[in-house]
């Protein structure tokens, strides 16, 4: 899960990493009020889950409340790489002497986490890595050994930072960032720029923060930061009902139980010349209500022309899924042709239940390949 800048900074603050004082605003009037509270010049920052906001006109300095209101008006509603700005972070403006870059992420090849630090911050890090790789200081941290302060010294010397006072502050930030990264189960914590003010103070001016989705159950406070409005309406509806749903752009709606099976179903659809409309995973449960929910989500997509149910039942039982399908058909009018392939636990019982009720738009096939062929035919 990606966090907004202001959320990442909130976590930075919790772990003692210095950030500027700021307020959230969703209207120009709120931006004005925030600037009044903060006092002095502020920076008005678009909160979107994408980078390069500065270049796109999503970051603007304002000399006071009135200016902040005007800048807010300009930035709200702006489209930045397909993300429409609905929220602003109003922050006390910083004076900047130098812009550095500091991040920690996983180096999967090395099976260790990796710090990167360079004094050439502010710009895109990929450029630095390509044009001036020597400027990028790297440090691996062994997860079993844990982080050792002497390692951070090497990282800092490697980046060519020689001012002792700066070294001391960055040493402290590096240690805290490591704790923050580990304790929040983050996959990326990036500070670009990490600034040095004319007074010699080091501070995080931006945050890019990604938390491992699979660890969110351990962090209810972070899980709550998820902004549902940032997702397409049907993905939001699916999430609320506990159905995994990813929109694709073909015309065959796919429903399966288990991500592996769903992915192979997508492949088989492609193999027989079709195009999947979505990726929809019922998970291990597959109870009647789950089937009803998933069918409602799938049929809400106007691109869907046919639906393929691919169930390989282990814990799930095909007779329960069959009842779910019938229940869904009785609750909502679904005109789409539905192709069903059952295998595994109670597959025979499931097929019998469907054969007995025999809804006109239901087609039962006994193999995955046949079912895919039929679904693609019916979508044409
Ligand atoms: P990004 O473009 O999405 O990475 O957004 P950043 O938060 O990194 O801001 C982009 C650039 O705006 C920074 O590199 C700074 O040069 C500038 N900037 C951001 N905040 C301030 C501030 O408080 N004062 C000044 N002078 N410049 C700022
Ligand atoms: Mn940045």
Q: What is the alpha-carbon Rg in Å? A: 26 Å
Q: Termini separation (Å)? A: 37 Å
Largest sheet: 7 strands, antiparallel
- The overall strand count is 19
**β-strand amount:** 25-35%
Number of helices: 13
- Uncertain stretches: none
Give the helix/strand class. alpha+beta
Spell out which ligands are present: guanosine-5'-diphosphate, manganese (II) ion
Shape category: elongated
Protein model, in words:
This protein has 380 residues and is α+β, with helices and mostly antiparallel strands. The chain is 38% helix and 25% strand. The protein is built from 13 helices and 19 strands. It has helices at residues 5-14, 28-38, 65-75, 125-131, 149-158, 164-183, 220-223, 233-240, 259-271, 288-299, 318-331, 347-357, 368-379, and strands at 2-3, 22-25, 42-46, 59-62, 79-80, 83-84, 88-92, 98-107, 112-118, 137-141, 186-196, 202-204, 208-211, 244-247, 252-256, 278-281, 306-313, 338-344, 362-365. Strands 1, 8, 9, 10, 11, 12 and 13 form a 7-stranded antiparallel β-sheet that branches. A 4-stranded antiparallel β-sheet has the order 2-7-3-4, covered by helices on one side. The two termini are 37 Å apart. It binds guanosine-5'-diphosphate and manganese (II) ion. Guanosine-5'-diphosphate binds at residues 43, 51-54, 59, 61, 93-94, 96, 99, 122, 192-193, 205-206.
């Amino acid at each position: 899960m990606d966090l907004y800048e202001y959320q990442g900074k909130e976590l930075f603050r919790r772990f003692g990493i210095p950030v500027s004082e700021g307020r959230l605003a969703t209207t120009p009037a709120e931006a004005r009020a925030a600037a009044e509270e903060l006092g002095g010049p502020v920076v008005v920052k678009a909160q979107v889950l994408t980078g390069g906001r500065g270049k796109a006109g999503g970051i603007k300095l304002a000399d006071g409340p009135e200016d902040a209101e005007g800048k807010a008006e300009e930035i709200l509603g702006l489209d930045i790489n397909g993300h429409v700005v609905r929220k602003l972070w109003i922050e006390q403006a910083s004076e900047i002497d130098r812009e550095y870059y500091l991040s920690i992420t996983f180096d999967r090849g090395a099976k260790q986490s990796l710090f990167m630090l360079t004094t050439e911050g502010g710009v895109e890090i990929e450029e630095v890595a390509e044009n001036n790789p020597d400027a990028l200081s790297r440090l691996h941290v062994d997860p079993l050994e844990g982080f050792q302060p002497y390692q951070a010294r090497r990282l800092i010397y490697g980046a060519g930072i020689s001012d002792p006072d700066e070294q001391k502050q960055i040493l402290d930030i590096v240690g805290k960032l490591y704790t923050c990264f580990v304790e929040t189960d983050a996959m990326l914590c990036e500070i670009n720029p990490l600034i040095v003010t004319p007074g010699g103070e080091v501070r995080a001016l931006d945050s890019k923060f990604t938390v491992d989705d699979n660890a969110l159950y351990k962090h209810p406070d972070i899980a709550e930061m998820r902004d549902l409005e940032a997702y397409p309406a049907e993905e939001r509806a699916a999430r609320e009902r506990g159905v995994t749903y990813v929109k694709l752009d073909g015309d065959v709606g796919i429903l399966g139980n288990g991500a592996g099976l769903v992915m192979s179903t997508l492949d088989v659809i492609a193999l027989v010349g079709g195009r999947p409309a979505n990726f929809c995973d019922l998970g291990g449960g597959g109870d009647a209500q789950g089937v009803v929910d998933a069918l409602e989500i799938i049929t809400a997509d106007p691109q869907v022309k046919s639906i393929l149910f691919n169930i390989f039942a282990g814990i799930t039982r095909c007779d329960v899924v069959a009842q779910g399908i019938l229940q869904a058909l009785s609750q909502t009018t679904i005109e789409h042709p539905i192709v069903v392939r059952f295998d595994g636990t109670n597959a025979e019982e499931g097929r019998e239940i469907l054969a007995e009720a025999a809804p006109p738009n239901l087609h039962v096939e006994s193999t995955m390949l046949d079912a895919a062929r039929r679904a693609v035919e019916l979508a044409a």
